[in-house]
């Protein structure tokens, strides 16, 4: 059972894939009408739980909470397809449980099953309107206008109705997806319902995990309705995989527990190349991120003038002072005797370098160690215009751009904001690197088309320095995994998950304003401790 839940939690589907999975179930003999009853029954129960919970929260502090709250008004927004059918079954169930139910349905042509449910609801005396106004006094709205069958931009009257009800500021629970969102890209097709909750049915739809959808999705959860795993496997096996990072996938990739007999070099030797006189803080934060990764040995190459502050902040690290340019950037890498770039288990290069450090980049690219490039490492790479040569590197390369850096690196890939999964996949295929595109829902792709999406984060991370921490953290994980058989994209995905979970915990304890990058580094280990305590 737990195994099923975990497998389902990792799956992300497009509209076409969901449709194909659904078809297999129907072809195998499951009646459509039975599946709708089952799914809508689960939705109705969950809605009651959510609704009662929010009533209890509102009543907190009051002397006693009546176990049977007075029937409340629920508005049901009904579309022409089976999303509308689901909503109408929910309407009927809530009606029989004592709720006052009002239906809005502006469509005259409905799918047959949806039409039958509407007819029956009418026969029960549920009022049905083709304008939205009568629903204005409802305590709760259920959005069943469109699900994964939405094909085109919304037009009036439904578009105006959605704009109007969004203004009402009422709790809205969307069935499957907020109506108006593109199932695959999360793009708003004209307009979309701003839900407080989204109950995603069966499998996670890709659109719900996109930055541009987040203002509409609210709290999202999955309603599992027992889709056979075999059907999912058959439909997904021939397309490039898009997976959701889960706690289980992330924890299984961490270098824990350590073998009882080991030594520091066995636990990875990471070289960080970072910092300049102008940006010394970036080097410190990258170092602190790497420290939290648990890496066995940490060396940090910085301009000579940063050496003493780095030693003070990271006494365990070997700080390598390098000759610097007039502007205070690293002019040349000067590694200790008997060391060269190829002797490190991984190299992470970029935070705070400034573009004046450009001469060192080719040297780093020529190394045979796994390499992560971030920040100015990416900007210098973009200026060099040699992104195609990454394919020729003898070891993996990881690029961790934010959208601005992504556009500089891959100017010919359009829509990095609207089609983040597609854009990241293209960038990885083009460069041969593992590409991590930062965002509220960070996307990681490898050159074979495998994609991971980080499903949780916090806007608290939108702050200078948090990217530097991520670079150090992933660098440290890459170094520790260099002798293990874990794919690079999984390590990168784990780093992204860990980083965002630390920020979520920090924001819970300190508010979203209290998560400066230095504080974040202190939560990296704290979040692992609290996660393992919750197991
Ligand atoms: N996944 C499952 O196994 C189950 C899904 N269920 C629910 O069914 C919907 C998908 O149903 P479908 O009928 O295919 O699509 P929609 O309800 O989203 O609506 C399609 C309907 O709307 C028309 N249409 C499309 N775009 C527009 C537009 N812009 N304006 C007007 N009309 C439009 C289109 O022609 C169709 O007629 C899924 O999300 C679940 O909620 C099952 O109930 C349970 C199993
Ligand atoms: K919907």
TrEMBL record:
| Top-rank taxon, per record | Bacteria
Necessary cofactors: K(+); Mg(2+)
* Residues the record lists as binding K(+): 83, 143, 179
Q: Where is the YjeF N-terminal domain?
A: 18-233
Q: Which HAMAP family match?
A: NADHX_dehydratase (MF_01965), NADHX_epimerase (MF_01966)
The UniProt family comment states: In the N-terminal section; belongs to the NnrE/AIBP family. Belongs to the NnrE/AIBP family.
- UniProt protein name: Bifunctional NAD(P)H-hydrate repair enzyme
Tell me which species this is from: Brasilonema sennae CENA114
Q: Which gene encodes it?
A: nnrE
């Amino acid at each position: 059972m737990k195994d099923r839940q975990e497998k389902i939690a990792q799956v992300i589907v497009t509209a076409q894939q969901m449709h194909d999975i659904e078809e297999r179930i129907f072809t195998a003999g499951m009646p459509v009408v039975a599946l709708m009853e089952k799914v809508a029954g689960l939705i109705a129960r969950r809605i009651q739980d959510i609704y009662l919970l929010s009533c209890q929260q509102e009543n907190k502090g009051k002397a006693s909470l009546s176990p049977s709250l007075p029937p409340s008004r629920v508005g049901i927004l009904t579309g022409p397809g089976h999303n509308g059918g689901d909503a109408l079954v929910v309407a009927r169930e809530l009606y029989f449980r004592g709720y006052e139910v009002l239906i809005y349905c502006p469509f005259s042509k409905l799918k047959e099953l949806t039409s039958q449910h509407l007819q029956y609801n009418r026969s029960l005396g549920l009022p049905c309107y083709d304008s939205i106004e009568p629903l204005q006094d409802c305590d709760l709205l259920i959005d069943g206008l469109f699900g994964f069958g939405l094909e085109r931009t919304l037009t009036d009257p439904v578009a105006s109705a959605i704009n109007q009800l969004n203004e009402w500021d009422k709790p809205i629970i969307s069935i499957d997806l907020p109506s108006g969102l593109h199932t695959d890209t999360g793009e708003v097709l004209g307009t979309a319902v701003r839900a407080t909750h989204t109950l995603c049915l069966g499998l996670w739809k890709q659109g719900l995990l996109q930055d541009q959808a987040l203002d509409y999705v609210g709290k999202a959860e999955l309603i599992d309705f027992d889709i056979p795993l075999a059907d999912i496997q058959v439909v997904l096996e021939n397309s490039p995989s898009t997976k959701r990072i889960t706690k289980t996938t992330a924890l299984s990739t961490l270098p824990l527990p350590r073998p009882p007999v080991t030594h520091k070099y066995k636990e990875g030797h990471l070289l960080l190349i970072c910092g300049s006189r102008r940006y010394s803080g970036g080097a410190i934060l990258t170092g602190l991120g790497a420290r939290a990764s648990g890496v066995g040995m940490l060396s940090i190459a910085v301009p000579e003038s940063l050496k003493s502050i780095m030693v003070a902040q990271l006494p365990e690290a070997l700080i390598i002072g390098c000759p610097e340019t007039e502007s205070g950037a690293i002019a040349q890498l000067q590694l200790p005797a008997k060391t060269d770039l190829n002797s490190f288990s991984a190299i992470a290069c970029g935070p705070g370098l400034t573009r004046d450090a450009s001469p060192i980049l080719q040297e780093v690219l020529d190394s045979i160690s796994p390499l992560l490039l971030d920040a100015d490492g990416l900007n210098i790479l973009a200026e060099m215009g040699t992104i195609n040569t990454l394919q020729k590197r003898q070891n993996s390369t990881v690029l961790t751009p934010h959208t601005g850096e992504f556009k500089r690196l891959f100017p010919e890939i359009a829509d990095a904001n609207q089609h983040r999964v597609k854009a990241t996949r293209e960038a990885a295929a083009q460069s041969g690197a593992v590409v991590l595109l930062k965002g509220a829902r960070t996307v990681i792709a490898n050159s074979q088309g495998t994609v991971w999406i980080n499903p949780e984060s916090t806007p608290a991370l939108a702050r200078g320095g948090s990217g530097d921490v991520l670079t150090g953290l992933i660098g440290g994980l890459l170094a520790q995994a260099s002798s293990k058989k874990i794919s690079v994209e999984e390590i990168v995905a784990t780093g992204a998950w860990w980083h965002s979970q630390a920020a979520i915990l920090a924001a819970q304890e300190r508010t979203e304003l209290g998560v400066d990058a230095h504080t974040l580094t202190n939560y990296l280990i704290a979040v692992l401790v609290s996660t393992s305590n919750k197991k």
